[in-house]
Amino acid sequence: MAELEPNTESTPEPRRRVLVAMSGGVDSSVAAARAVEAGHDVVGVHLALSTAPGALRTGSRGCCSREDADDARRVADMLGIPFYVWDFADRFKEDVIDEFVAAYAAGETPNPCLSCNEKVKFAALAERAVALGFDALATGHYARLDDGELRRAVDADKDQSYVLAVLDHGQLGRAMFPIGDTPKPQIREEAERRGLLVANKPDSHDICFIPTGDTKAFLGARIGVRPGAVVDKKSGEQLAEHDGVHGFTIGQRKGLGIEAPAVDGSPRYVTAIDPGTGTVTVGTAEDLEVHSISATKAIWSSGEVPAGPVECVVQVRAHGGLADAVATPVDGPDGPGIEIALRQPLRGVARGQAAVLYLPDAVQGDLVLGSGRISAAA
């Protein structure tokens, strides 16, 4: 995917009343600064998403600490904008954390950033913003909006259009992504020029509500022990026992609990997870290959469902997992869905992940066509 040059020509925007979600990091801080510089009436808000926030973050792990809130407040003071902290902890727990735990218990591999964007930032927060008279919600996401159409960011390595593809046409119409036209190193340089103290603050990594980075322990404490077997796909032989399917994801190679390697010495991978029986099946890399994907909860970014099959590129993970494909809208038992025929096989496609569809555009940057939640792959 070719990296695009930043757009240096800008048309002055009409003055808008903008609420900026400020995490306390460099990206949202520069987004707020740019919104102010563009002449908008800007207010900053930090979302308190934890019922028991830590005083300090641990390096680059986690977010939403009191330190992050203080950093956001200092930036708002420097910019001369009003700043508030809004408590969304209960909503975040219900719509993000609880859903994340339930999905893993069901043998799925969810991405909590998708749920947070869909249900918290661009639903609950955006709805409150509109009720208070704001015209738009701005965030520090790396993505671009072109006449209401969602496109990849200029910085391909930081692009976050994948986790924003769950937004519908109405939500995109109220969104602003001020930094999507600039590579991350330049964002840090800009923050330094502006005198923002967060210019060199480490980025958040891993899952924000699991600051230890130990997802298996986090899930185990909430799901409990649910024993099952690890079996070989080809022979059906039981190779090991486990404490719960929540400790596994499709494509996983390490931590399988298998004492001996395969007879031919080749690595084993998780190829299937059955939460009903607790069976985790392992096989070869070739066993991971899929040629078709079924997805539910279809969202079409333009607000219009394509009349028929569409040639596109599908992405099945936040970073990687791309293939040329033909996507066809369908009406399934669970509502609008998408059937995706892959032109090249993909590996490691897991239920619960998002399948995001792009229309390649070498000039303007890939356009997001829509997305769906992966329910099956074959």
- Kindly provide the radius of gyration, computed on alpha-carbon positions and rounded to a whole number of angstroms: 22 Å
Oligomer: single chain
Task: Count the domains.
Answer: 3
Low-confidence stretches: none
CATH class of the largest domain: Alpha Beta
Shape: globular
CATH arch. level architecture of the largest domain: 3-Layer(aba) Sandwich
What fold name stands as the CATH topology of the largest domain? Rossmann fold
Strand content: 25-35%
> How would you classify the helix and strand content by structural class?
alpha/beta
Distance between the termini: 26 Å
Mean pLDDT level: 92
- Sheet with the most strands: spatial strand order: 12-15-14-13-16-17
SSE series = EHEHEHHEEEHHEHHEEEEEEEEEE
Instruction: Specify the number of helices.
Output: 8
* Tally of strands: 17
Task: Report the sheet with the most strands, covering strand number, pairing sense and barrel closure.
Answer: 6 strands, antiparallel, barrel
CATH superfamily of the largest domain: HUPs
Helix amount: 10-25%
